[in-house]
Design a protein that fits this description.
Elements lengths: L3 E5 L5 H12 L3 E6 L9 E4 L7 H4 L1 H10 L4 E5 L4 H5 L7 E5 L12 H12 L2 E4 L2 H10 L7 E3 L19 E4 L9 H14 L4 E5 L5 H10 L6 E5 L6 H6 L3 E4 L8 H8 L4 E4 L4 H4 L6 E4 L4 H12 L2 H18 L2 H17 L1
Parallel strand pairs: 1-2, 1-4, 2-3, 4-5, 5-6, 6-7, 8-9, 8-11, 9-10, 11-12, 12-13
Helix pairs in contact: 7-12, 10-13
Length: 349
């Protein structure tokens, strides 16, 4: 039977939005307490504002009061860092913590953040991770937590129907933030090499970020202005239509905890070429649903693009295999089933 849940998380994050809206549709009464972002449609959202790194400390008492007065059956913290500070003080309801990546990965052997995050995780009744990679990182951080961790992937909705590959020329798509972590500069340098082999190939750079001005300058310096189109930030509801206009999704990330963009491309029956990092090998089967390449390696990325772009039948076959794969293992409704089941287990216990 659905109950009452307080969620501490970022209201501006599409991941948080999809969880709280999905749970609300399942009948759960949700109160989202956030720092930053507007109200999430259909969900009670309380935004305490963000004023730098000390905001979590400044808002801790108010956040805990807002949680307590809701009389929740469960408190769910999204991201162990920051919001975890609030979670450690919620002794009036069982605590579930969802780890996102940087809250358990590469914290440094003796950092204060490592100590605080480990303390929060040990305070939690249960922990959810989106990938086995994150599960293993959490166990490395605190081996005694292994029995408390449940892997619940962040699944995707499926389009009503798949759209066939567009006609030539081959179009590539990048749909990540313009941040060094996601390797957009590596992609442009690889693409420069690709253009020497495939003269009519095109690249769409979706998204934006601190690196956008640099990337546009680099595009001009490499003589790619007629081949690369910057389309800016693309709302979540338009991602599928964008992917369906392209042949291959490129994700040259240097770090990824999961790789939901690969699954979004797969939902559209499009193969991906992505870095072999973090949780990506769990969502991309190398040689079957796309190609994996080493990170930090423009030459390897260029070679993979040339191979797949030059083999239209292989590209189509990998896209179809990717679609079957996501249908079988990463449907969004199944992710909601797993999360609501975990909620019920915690509450009943």
């Amino acid at each position: 039977m659905p109950g009452r849940v307080v969620i501490f998380g970022w209201a501006e994050s599409i991941h948080t939005q999809r969880w709280v809206q999905g749970l609300t549709r399942r009948g759960w009464q949700i109160r989202l307490v956030s720092q930053g972002g507007g109200p999430v449609p259909g969900v009670e959202t309380i935004n305490l504002g963000r004023y730098g790194k000390l905001s979590y400390f400044r808002h801790a008492a108010e956040a805990i009061h807002l949680a307590r007065e809701f009389h929740p059956d469960l408190v769910h913290v999204h991201y162990a860092g920051g919001f975890g500070l609030w979670g450690t003080r919620c002794d009036f309801a069982p605590l579930l913590v969802s780890i996102w990546g940087s809250d358990v990965v590469d914290l440094g052997a003796f950092s204060i953040q490592r100590y605080l995050n480990r303390r929060l995780l040990r305070h939690a009744r249960r922990i959810s991770a989106t990938s086995n990679f994150l599960r293993d990182a959490c166990i490395k951080l605190a081996p005694d937590l292994e029995s408390r961790i449940t892997v619940i992937p962040f699944g995707v909705d499926l389009p009503a129907s798949t759209v066939p590959m567009p006609p030539p020329p081959v179009r590539l798509c990048y749909i990540k933030k313009h941040s060094a972590t996601y390797g957009p500069e590596i992609l442009l340098r690889a693409f420069s090499t690709v253009c020497q082999r495939i003269p009519d190939i095109k690249l769409t750079m979706a998204g934006d970020g601190d690196l956008t001005p640099l990337l546009k300058r680099l595009t001009g310096d490499l003589g790619l202005s007629s081949r690369v189109e910057f389309v800016g930030f693309v709302p979540h509801e338009r991602i599928y239509s964008l992917l369906q206009e392209h042949h291959i999704m490129i994700m040259p990330s240097l770090s990824e905890s999961f790789g939901v963009a690969v699954l979004e491309a797969a939902a559209c029956a499009r193969p991906s070429i992505a870095s072999r990092v973090g949780g990506v090998p769990e969502v991309l089967r190398d040689g079957e649903t796309g190609l994996l390449v080493p990170p930090h390696d423009p030459a390897a990325l260029a070679g993979a693009i040339v191979r797949l772009a030059g083999e239209p039948e292989t590209c189509r076959r990998m896209g179809e295999a990717a679609h079957r794969f996501v249908c079988l293992r990463y449907r969004w409704e199944e992710s909601l089933n797993q999360m609501t089941s975990l909620y019920e287990q915690i509450i009943n216990d």
